[in-house]
Amino acid sequence: MKNGAVHNKEQFLNQIAKSLGRERRTTPVARPQWKHQPQWNVLKNATEDELLDVLGTQCDRIHTRVETTTCLELNNMLTTVIEHFDAKSIVSWDDPRFKEYGINDYYENAGRAGVDVHIWDPSIGEKNIIISERADVGITFADITLAESGTVVLFSDNGKGRSVSLLPTNYIAIIPKSTIVPRMTQATHYIHKMEQENGNVPSCINFISGPSNSADIEMNLVVGVHGPITATYIVVTDR
Amino acid sequence: MKVSLFITCLGDVFYPYVGKDTVEILERLNCEVVFPKNQTCCGQPAYNSGYHKETKDVAKHMIKTFEQSDYIVSPSGSCVTMFHEYVHLFDHDKEWQEKAQSLANRTFEFTQFIVDVLKVENVGASFSKRATYHTSCHMSRLLGVKDAPMKLLENVKGLELSNLPNKEICCGFGGTFSVKMVPISEQMVNEKIEHIEETDAEVLIGADCGCLMNIGGRIERQGKPIKVMHIAQVLNSRG
Amino acid sequence: MPMKIGDVEFFGRVDKGLRNSFMRNAVVSAQERLKGAKLNAAEELGDWEEWRNLSEEIRQHTLENLDYYLEELTENVCKQGGHVFFAQTAEEANEYITRVSKEKKAKKIIKSKSMVTEEISMNDALEALGCEVIESDLGEYILQLDDHDPPSHIVAPALHKNKEQIRETFSEKKGYKKTSKPEELALFAREQLRADFLSADIGITGCNFAVAESGAISLVTNEGNARLSTSLPKTQITVMGMERIVPTWEELDILVSMLCRSAVGQKLTSYITGLIGPKDKGDVDGPEEFHLVILDNGRSNILGTEFQSALHCIRCAACINVCPIYRHIGGHSYGSIYPGPIGAVLSPLLGGYEDYKELPYASSLCAACTEACPVKIPLHDLLVKHRRNIVEEHGKGTFGEKLAMRGFSLAASSPKIFSMGSKSAPTVMSPFIKDGKVKKGPGPIKPWTDIRDFPEPSKQSFREWFKKRDKGGDQ
After folding, report:
1. Between A and C, how many residue pairs show a Cβ–Cβ distance under 8 A?
2. Which of C181, C177, C123, C163 is nearest to C1 (CA)?
3. Neighbouring-strand partners of residue A146
4. Which of C78, C266, C304 sits opposite A20 (nearest CB)?
5. What does pLDDT average to over chain C?
6. What is the pLDDT of residues C380-414, one digit of tens each?
7. Chain B residues lying within 8 Å of C366, measured CB to CB
8. Which one of A217, A219, A229, A233 makes the best mutation probe of the C interface by having the most chain C beta carbons within 10 Å?
């Protein structure tokens, strides 16, 4: 990729060095070993089941429905959840996990039952966005899940469009139980390692905690503003 | 144990009875109370108004005045906090900073001294009234004395102490703030009095004459039947 | 809209604020609600003080090495194909942003909430160019529709408005026909803005924290508007104050955790988005072009001074939410887009003492702000430092005050004069005393007695009593 342009950097950074009363610092600065590191103590030693409990409790507070199921029962669970939305259209990531978990079969059945199912397809470009905007349901997998805050972490990719978790009215995240970690600390540590090892991270990383909301009108919480109005997490316990 | 009393300006001129009660309680607890007569003011009015050169002169005088004291005790959390502030005042003067630090180490707010140094929580007082306690900002936040007055008051026979709603909110005194920003200060003290009234207390107890002068002065102006007392008065009551 | 709001002088603004009973009730109820939420969120985190210490340590280290981290950020943004513009002033920033907009022939620009773009009056510059600039944060959208009413809180900008006022604004400006129920109002804004998101040429955002190691910017929202602003338009411009940066993703974790908890009592807001340059090759959504504008605008003058810690600020508004002054006078009284304690510290630094000389005095120094600050800015201490600057370096203390303070210092350093003063108090005050109280005081006591009684000086001072009592006299 062509490098971007930079304007006025030298003068600007020189000014900062001058204000700090020293020469420009150009050699790598070692990040210190922070004296206090309480973040690693949160939910330390919690078992997978305990983390799942924490996730469930937190999701109650952030207006997010949590269902647990097994890989075998996953499609039945999807049917139940989506029926509730009376969905006419679904948009989904193109992610190998959908096939691996057998969700493709669900999509085929839904399609036969008259539901428009769209799998994100980079070859049709912006049409994906228009379809997502009109979709009743958007479905993605969680790449990492944070128990403490009820958060799914999503890494963007060609088949993993940003709009799927954003534009549809209802959002569903499929959460393999093994992706659940205590909190954001483990996820950012993972991203940090990814950066160090690959020199690159996805161009968009989303930490999503429930449906969109706002308290801008008289501090009353309104669920569903610019993003989805509902959020549902389906935890697959045997994955 | 020899204790040097720092009476403070307000205590000296307007509320000498608070000083008398302080002396009597300390003596009953087997302290020998002395009064270094060269003491003046802690310098807070000048310091908070930004006149730091002037404050340094005052600070040096007070440091010298109490140089020989083992323990300095004062019935005012705010003035004791100012003694602690001297340390920062002499950030660029090592010699005086050391002296200031030594002064700070030896200086205690009255209730703090009884509970933390003398290790006494029951001073044998009895006072049969419904009361509530005002938490002074400097004493609780900056000096960190929160529990001592409560421990002492809990052991006062007959005292019906109720929790003051929003007790952490400033009463609107703030030294010169109370005369420089009268319209704002007025609203703050009004709200404080509303909360005091909610408790149905007959007496408002505090540990800082500045706050008490503000709240008491406003209560009197409003003609409300709430009595304002310093904690030393309550702790020296036998009725 | 510039940093400065309006031309009314300080006490005029305060008077208006104090008379606005809706605003005052709204602020009180917001403060009460947030107090509980924040307490819970802090408690759940475990050792809150440890978290504050860590956050402070991170901010200190980053600022001490700011030139290095900005350089690392820049390299990484460029590597991804993003452009970086360093703007010394608001004018330079606006010039660059308008230039990009012109090049893109932009007609419609969608914005997600950003204080720094308010600080530089970016909207005015773009509107002068003929662009339609649309605020997409619900609160900002309301204010924009209401003839550009200024924000009164850095997290909840429309805190001073009630739902009935909002309904009227929507109906007058956008033909809204439904009720003043917040759900219906929000749904209407959602529908209105969806069309704008889809048709906007440029998305403009602020930046909560940039991540130097990846050249990332992060955006923290609940509504999802920042995601929309950065997913749909072809060009993205992000404006960041130069101090809003962390070394790596691991520090982002800490500061975002502190921000969400301190601002709204949430563990994390609904959306935390990390964005690295333009979209990847083969991606469908996300910007094709990415511009990062890094702004100084007076910040480097704060670096290296005793006010440096003010740059630790992560704009969570925790200080505002506990401030007893803000509680009564509201945001507009500060006359700056940065209100509350942090506003009283920052506004004079960024905008000068001339415009903001009263703000450092609009504090009882109760230190609730200092206690609340998640990155441990000693806010009340900085206000005292401002006061010192005003009198010692800018000579702005009144003559009478200077004289009084010199007199005070002289007296308080000299026990003889001091005790003479306290001895004479009863005599001096006696003409003003009625029924044991001073109802109308002389000189400096006058403003006190405007609203309160002043006590009568005791006939016998404590020191006289102590000297005369049986047990012993002075040391």
Report:
1. 316
2. C123
3. A151, A181
4. C304
5. 92
6. 999 999 999 999 877 776 777 888 888 888 888 88
7. 137-138, 141, 169-170, 174
8. A217
Compute φ and ψ for A226, nearest 5 degrees: -85, -30
pLDDT computed for residue C1 by the predictor: 42
- Same domain for C408 and C294? no
Q: What is the mean pLDDT of residues C23-40?
A: 88
Residue A20 within any structural domain of the chain: no
Q: How many domains does chain C have?
A: 2
Q: How far is CA C135 from CA C145, C180, C226, in A?
A: 9, 21, 11
Q: Which CATH number fits the domain that encloses residue C287? A: 3.40.50.10420
Q: Coil, strand, or helix at residue C459?
A: coil
Question: Is beta strand A144-146 parallel, antiparallel or unpaired with respect to A151-155?
Answer: antiparallel
Rounded CA-CA distance B27/B14 in Å is 22
Interface of B with C in 199-218 (CB under 8 A): 213-214, 216-218
Q: Which residue of B has its CA nearest to C333?
A: B184
Range of the domain at A64: 48-236
A198, exposed or middle or buried, with CB in 10 Å at 0-12, 13-18, 19+? exposed
pLDDT tens digits, A34-49: 999 999 999 999 999 9
- For chains A and B, having 3+ Cβ pairs within 8 Å is answered no
Q: Which CATH architecture has domain B130-235?
A: 3-Layer(aba) Sandwich (3.40)
pLDDT band at residue C475 using 50, 70 and 90 as cut-offs: low
Query: What Å distances lie between residue C296 and A8, C304, C313, CA to CA?
Result: 12, 14, 15
> Are C105 and C217 found together in one domain?
yes
In a domain, A33, yes or no: no
**Across chain A, how many H-helices and E-strands are there?**
7, 13
3-class DSSP state of A35:
coil
Number of domains in chain A: 1
Determine the structural domain holding residue C453 and report its residue range.
399-468
**ipTM associated with this complex:** 0.96
Any B CB within 8 A of C430 CB: no
CA of A204: which chain C residue's CA is closest? C275
Cα distance between residue C273 and residue C286, in whole Å: 12
Calculate how close chain B gets to C29, using CA atoms only, in Å: 12
Query: Where is the domain boundary, C269, C301, C333?
Result: C301
Closest-CA residue of A relative to C271 is A208
Do C412 and C292 share a structural domain?
no
Cβ within 8 Å of C, A 114-133: 120, 122, 125-126, 128-129, 133
On whether both C286 and C403 belong to a single domain, the answer is: no
Give this prediction's pTM.
0.95
Give the separation between CA C317 and CA C327, rounded to whole angstroms: 13
pLDDT-derived band at C434, boundaries 50, 70, 90: confident
In a domain, C205, yes or no: yes
Q: What is the DSSP letter of C214?
A: T
Domain boundaries along the sequence of chain B? 2-117, 130-235
Chains that touch C (3 or more CB pairs under 8 A): A, B
For residue C178, what are its two tokens?
Answer: 């439904």
Question: Which residues in chain C are contacts of A138 at CB distance < 8 A?
Answer: none
Q: Regarding beta strands B130-133 and B203-206, do their DSSP bridges make them parallel or antiparallel, or are they unpaired?
A: parallel
Q: How confident is the model at residue A115 (pLDDT cuts 50, 70, 90)?
A: very high
CA pair distance A57, A221, nearest whole angstrom? 19
In a domain, residue C254? The reply is: yes
3-state secondary structure of A232: strand
Partner-chain residue, chosen from C408, C419, C422, that has the shortest CB–CB distance to B45:
C408
